[in-house]
Design a protein that fits this description.
It contains five helices and two strands; from the N terminus they run E-E-H-H-H-H-H. With 128 residues, it is mainly α. The protein has two domains: 1-31, no CATH class; 39-125, no CATH class. It has a two-stranded antiparallel sheet. Helix 3 (54-72) crosses helix 4 (77-87). The radius of gyration is 18 Å and the shape is globular.
Length: 128
């Protein structure tokens, strides 16, 4: 019997693990929990706009709530998710669930918004 030991690589910011060092390095650079992340979706979600850094997104969320975050992020789903993930604080033990704020973030559906970004991008790339 042969035993194979394969290295596993894990993101320093989330629980994602994988067997490819290159793919994990790419993930880690854009991980929505990385405070120094580089958004890889922004060029497709908001063409021609520069992606804001995470601190700018967090400041916008703290100052103006969800509407300000949507404006500053240029409606990029990955940038909005990064701000939400990095600003979230878990409830104290025994408090139960976190109440919804009611400013629009309760309707945020990351998967649906990313699918819409890719559908728009693919439609614009087609030759008719």
């Amino acid at each position: 019997m042969r035993v194979f030991m394969r290295p596993r690589y894990g993101c320093d910011h989330c629980k994602k693990i994988g067997g490819s060092k290159r793919h994990m390095a790419k993930h880690e650079a854009g991980c929505t929990n990385n405070p120094n992340r580089v958004c890889r979706l922004h060029e497709f979600a908001a063409p021609g706009e520069d992606a804001p850094d995470v601190q700018t997104l967090l400041d916008a969320l703290a100052a103006g709530g969800w509407p300000k975050l949507v404006e500053v992020s240029h409606n990029c789903p990955a940038c909005k998710l990064a701000a939400l993930r990095q600003s979230w604080e878990p409830p104290e033990p025994g408090e139960g669930t976190v109440p919804m704020v009611g400013d629009g973030r309760d309707e945020f559906d990351f998967r649906a918004e990313v699918a819409a970004v890719w559908a728009d991008h693919n439609d614009s790339e087609r030759d008719y």
